[in-house]
Amino acid sequence: MSHPEYFSFDEFKVRKAKLDEIRQLGVNPYPHHFVPTDKLKALSDRYSDKEVGTYEEAMEKKTPPVIVAGRLVLHRAMGKNIFAQIQEELGHIQLMFNRDLTKVTGLNENSEVTNHKFIEKKLDLGDIIGVEGHLFRTQKGELTVMVHQMTLLTKSLLPLPDKHSGLKDKETRYRKRHLDLISSPEVMATFILRSKIISLMRTFFEQEDFIEFETPVLERVYGGAQAKPFTTHLNALHQDMFLRISLELPLKKLIVGGFNRVYQIGKDFRNEGIDHTHNPEFTMVEFYAAYWDYNDQKRFTERLFEYIALQLFGTTKLGLRKDKHGKEHEIDLKAPWPAISMFDAIHKFGGYKIDEMSDAEMRTTLKEKSSLPHDKINEITERGLLVQKMFEEFVERHLIQPHFIIDHPIETTPLCKLHRDPKLAKDGIVERFELFILGTEFCNAYTELNDPELQRDLLERQQRMLEAGDEEANPIDEEFLEAIYQGMPPTGGNGIGIDRLVMLFTNQTSIRDVIFFPLMKDHQEQALEESRG
User: Fold this and answer.
1) Which fold is adopted by the domain 182-338+401-531?
2) Global pTM exceeds 0.85
3) What is the pLDDT of residue 168?
4) DSSP E strands: which ranges in 125-280?
């Protein structure tokens, strides 16, 4: 069996030899258990403005005792003392090992290697250690642990990235996120903030009487969005399956079943392109409320975004944020947000009166004034989808502050209720909105369609589109239709992309910077492509 390339690295061989020596000295390089009494950041915060005592007092154990652990990121000998620094999560602290005081757990008492020499020669940057000692401040005022007992918890066999240059290559950062987290505190902070945002979201939903449920990832029939699915095969039942592209249809079945307010935070999978705002595996929150419509969902969405901002920052003002083109804007999430119909938005921002344009005129405009391939434009046969494409090409980039784009053509979704205004309903307009900030879509909401006959007509149209070659159309889902025939109350539904939401609040411009392990091209395939030029 072949070994990975790093087995041949000199640094790996040196550390591997140290590992053998450590074992021979009686020290277990991978013990089972260690219990710190403090997190490093909490410890630093607690004593940030407190007196803790002197070097001499720490030597005599007269200062506050601590037990802490972390990864060794700095290590330098200075006479009879060795100074070091360990880090964990967002905290770090300085350590001092003393030649006459510090003991190494497990080291043979009659060993030729002293405690001090062990710490100086056998430890490497990247090792994880636990220490017991007493706090003091150096003459420069730095909080430090005078270490009385050092325990090696994990011997690292591979070196850390260079402390000063860090990980500059983005490909490496995304492929080896563990190194990115170790070397970049700001990356660690981004992902901690992501977790907090999701926690705040759950708190808000619970306060509004929503119940969280889990629905299947594997489905026999996919639906709820216009997207090409990932396929797999279930051996036990001898049938092909799909990874879900949306959380929508099973959550609506729960509304039919009698739950009034439901939500789910979960992964969706769409076999589509990868760019700054798209990853084939992504996280959504979808939520449905009986007896709501899209107006209720607008107000709820405003309050949700405001709540998260206020909890994180104490203000709805997020400061400077970059749009897709790198231009910075001051973003404020304070409600209410403007709501404008898709047709009016195309007129206001693009200068086109859609009601006065034929399908042919829209195609000509798209060919002459957008970068879309002509053959793709010719493939758009339904008027509503041409309207949507006009919006995407000429309007989206102008929607910097929060905007609700309401009242879309029915062709854009088979799951939304026709408009309550008879004239708009006759024109095929549905009660749908999308939220845009910085020119990017953040959510998609409907007054949900609960007319079973119209629902069947629209899904049958999707089935015909699928059979005609539209890979993003939905197959008909008879189980879902049966649920709608059973009777679903008037309902408002919404879906928010959590990855994009995190990008907004953490000031990131790429979805890869808020997903721990974004999908990347296989190393071997990438190398082959590069060799071909």
Assistant:
1) BirA Bifunctional Protein; domain 2 (3.30.930)
2) yes
3) 72
4) 128-137, 143-154, 211-212, 218-219, 231-234, 239-243, 261-269
